[in-house]
Amino acid sequence: MSMSVGSDSGDEDQVMSEINTTPLVDIMLVLLIIFLITSPVVLKLQKISLPSETNQALKPKPTNINIVVNKDGEIYFDQARMADTNALFDRLKVEAVKLPQPEIHVRGDQNTRYEFIGKVIFTTQRAGIQKVGFIIEPPDKG
Asked: Where in or outside the cell (predicted)?
């Protein structure tokens, strides 16, 4: 590091045109030392155990089964007409043992008697189906 003490001729009234960087370097070194000392203190946080990453195979979701009951009480299992509730019971028994078990969606005509819908629900319960839902038309927002 160098320092300007004056001119060669001894004239003290001359203006210095050099920038003195010694104070700047001193301040930067002090800041660097402060950051080096305090950074390990700041990094000491609470001890926690982070979760480890695991890859899991996706379980395929079974397809939902649609049961349609028209206004005459005819039952359709995924577009196939069932002769009666016993035929429906036989088809549902096969679906009930699958893992994961599919959901049953019952679609009933607006003019269907409750008796026909009740028979379908009772048959699904007898077959051991866990999830049964009704599909309805959402109301108009008008």
From this structure: Cell membrane
What's the rounded Cα separation, in Å, for the pair 10 and 32? 39
As to burial, measured by CB atoms within 10 angstroms (0-12 exposed, 13-18 middle, 19+ buried), residue 60 is: exposed
Query: CA separation (Å) from 126 to 14, 40, 140?
Result: 109, 67, 36
Question: Residue ranges of the domains in the chain?
Answer: 65-134
Domain spanning 65-134: CATH 3.40.50.2300: no
Bridge partner residues of 65 (DSSP): 104
Closest of 39, 116, 107, 129 to residue 84, by C-alpha: 116
Full-prediction pTM beyond 0.85? Answer: no
